[in-house]
Amino acid sequence: MSDKTSNQSVFRTSRLEEADGDGLNPTSNRTMGEIIAARFSRRGFLRGSLAATAIAATVSPMALMTAGKAKAQTAKFSFTEVEAGVDATHHVAEGYDADILLRWGDAVFADSPDFDPANQTPEAQARQFGYNNDYVGFIPIDGSSEHGMLVVNHEYTNEHLMFPGIVTVVDGKVEVAPADRKRVDIEMAAHGGTIVEIRKDGGKWQVVRDGARNRRITSTTEMELTGPAAGHDRLKTSADATGTKVLGTINNCAGGVTPWGTYIMAEENFHGYFIGELPEGHPEAENYKRYGVPDGSYAWGNFHERFDVSKEPNEPNRFGWVVEVDVADPNSVPKKRTALGRFKHEGAESIVNKDGRVVFYLGDDERFDYVYKFVTAGTYDENDRAANMNLLDEGTLYVAKFEEAGTVTWMPLVHGEGPLTAENGFASQADVVIETRRAADLLGATPMDRPEDIEPHGDGRVYVMLTNNTRRKEANAANPRVDNAFGHIIEINEEGGDFASTEGRWEILLKCGDPSVAEVGATFSTETTRNGWFGMPDNCAVDSDGRLWVSTDGNSPKATGRTDGLWAVETEGERPTSKLFFRVPIGAEMCGPLPTPDLTTFFVAVQHPADGGDDWEGFGRPSYYEDLSTRWPDFRDDMPVRPAVVAITRQGGGKIGV
After folding, report:
1. Per-residue pLDDT tens digits for 85-126
2. Whole-prediction pTM value?
3. How far is CA 521 from CA 23, 507, 524, in A?
4. What region does 638 belong to: left with phi over 0, alpha with psi -120 to 50, or beta?
5. Which long-range contacts (CB under 8 A, 24 or more apart) does 178-185 make?
6. Which of 277, 582, 611, 651 has its CA 20 to 30 A from that of 424?
7. Which of 515, 535, 531 is nearest to 575 (CA)?
8. Could you tell me which residues are beta bridge partners of residue 325?
9. b/e 137-157 (16+ beta carbons within 10 angstroms → b)
């Protein structure tokens, strides 16, 4: 999700993903930008492992880039980079193939119906690959990098790109026909996730459609609530008096794969699915205000009462969680693990700590919200998968507080500690996790600029993607620049390389944007070409060689003169050098960067191609089913644009990027 305020969509579901308004954090906690600004003011620039990456706002970035030429590092990436730009198709580095693996509507099972965009049904969509693929994970079968289970999140739906005949444009005014029950049910079936067996055959990946573990998860799949909030009165509804059973998962953005081989789905912008008004004086009113509920971007509540808060006031408390799915059993009940907190989860990447506990890093993707981590109470047993299956029900959830001295403190969100008491409305740990945001507010956590994907590195480093935040009233309100339109990346070094530590240090790894424009203040190295810089970091991956790859969301003809893509980022020099490896078609976001363990394949997800109305080659008008800016990837008049997962391999075989 990105901050595309320069070209905000006329379509509601796109606006939900593009911009969340001014942010919902009511606190006066010092923002990350204020902390960065104070640190720069006090120290000029920082010395240490990433000395020249934290550059004072008062110093010309181009002058500093010139001064850094003598210390340029040898890049670990040897591919010929792609030329940045904008057009209707995708582009990959020379010497590589980018093959379409799965598109919206493709068969997931041997008996799945053929995709017929003009005659869609909920029943067909439930047997087909869903819409807007985001997170991509790979779980090897028998340790193989050429045979495994692909797991893919389907974050949300764009009705104007999916359905024919519902958009009219007269004299520049756009109207969308009201949704009916069938259209809503198709959208609900297009949400969730796909689990599918894939195999490499002759150097090319194929879907095994008769795979015994293939599965579609949708917004109506039965799930179980576990952990401290399970069974609480605030999670009970007329359909579930136990407070432990939920139908479905929605708005799954990034995610993760656990060390024991389960699939993590992270629920993000759940607020957009609810309509109605709470009864006057309802006790959840302040809770929902902090999360933006109800937003009404979708019409589901007109046909399914559970999405109308006036009829089911507790239903929103049943979303905003991390969901764990056992891919080994296609009949298993997915579990919403409430111990990891309730907020707008971007993802949940994990690492096994040196003491055997497992640490998950979590971003709350909204302006002025927080960075979290969860440390399991139990330890991981690589020889006993069954013993690991409930590790996510017990542990400690922490929220980050960043200090201008360069330290970060992880504060526990534990009932009874500090302000998290009954006097402040927290009667138990259930209340703490249901109202995670308010609990973090009271602890004084640091409001961040859209914390999205957070990826741990094996040596104790952690990379935090901060996409952007243009909702700034003052120059130093929340970023070291006047306006953080292009985002930045923070590197945390956990104390002693211990991911479970409650202390660490932080540096700015990279301030993004065009380094040729001095006032932008970008900090790419002098070795970065005009194609290599980017804005709006969103997701990332650390490959098995320890290299960082960053995908973006928000680059566009108006914002940066280029589409989103996947960049290889060399982190070991004085300042990062970045190279463009893959770029998406017009209107698309780059999601789910995932290298296989042997680095011979990179899976990427191209989400919402053709969305928006960017001024590209005169296409300064809304893009919708009948008048699309691209018909990627089929480029057929009888096929709409289709989000898809792409498998990138090196021609002739070999490792990616070297």
Report:
1. 999 999 999 999 999 999 999 999 999 999 999 999 999 999
2. 0.93
3. 24, 16, 9
4. alpha
5. 178/299, 179/299, 179/302, 181/303, 182/121, 182/122, 183/159, 184/298, 184/299, 184/300, 184/302, 184/303, 184/304, 185/122, 185/303
6. 277
7. 515
8. 263
9. bbbbbeeebbbbbbbbbbbbb
